Amino acid sequence: MISIKTALYRSSPLLAAFAFSAHADEDAAAQNAFTLGIGGQYGPRYSGSDQQRLQIVPVIQARWNALFFDSQKGLGYDLQAENGLYLEHTLGYGLGRADSNSSWRDGANNLKGMGNIDATLNTAMAVGWSITPWLNIEGKATLPLTDGQGVQYQTSLMLIPLQTASDTLVFQSVALFGDSRYMNTFYGVSREQSLRSRYALYAAEGGFYGVDSNLMWNHQFNEHWGVMMSVGDSWLSDHAADSPLVQRRNEGTGELAFLYTF
User: Fold this and answer.
1) Which residues constitute the signal peptide according to the record (predicted)?
2) Residue 192: φ, ψ to 5°
């Protein structure tokens, strides 16, 4: 049976949700594993878009004691105390956003004239507490290192109502926050952008801007093969939803991944 911290490490991004859960145990040796997989993500073309897309993504994960690599989160380490408190630090990347339809990152044709948001190297720090084997809380900050796109913050609550040797069910709700630079990078419209795109000027305020909620299920067929499925809903508050770029403030998502752990 997996620990709640083991499940949390895989819960964001969701496609990496439970790659090592088949072998997770309380001793450090059981944390060492290498997993490959392929997954599909169905969701909006960008935050606030009313257009959906299906994207195929690889899943690559490796863990050696406290160190890990994740193809979507990056390179990092996590430390956990006996009382359930833990710290996670990662060095990763953000893909930014295109002003046209893109097969590998967020973007849509209706953003033409807004310009591309550059991909960036970032660092993230998370501090959390596994209160019980089925309840976890966490706070996280993600800061860009190679481009001034602002800082994103989030607080999350995770419930694990079901944990067996072969099945794990997880519900997670995440409150999203951003400083003014982050909000204007992804939801604002500057004067130059307005002239090029014909969208109205919009200055987004920093602060709370949305909630992501997800229900995830993992099933282990045997010691190597597993499958992860999730359904979710993203809701944008007025700080983001009032942007002329946002065409829909509620967006559904779905994900499916097949995983093989060596």
Assistant:
1) 1-24
2) -65, -45
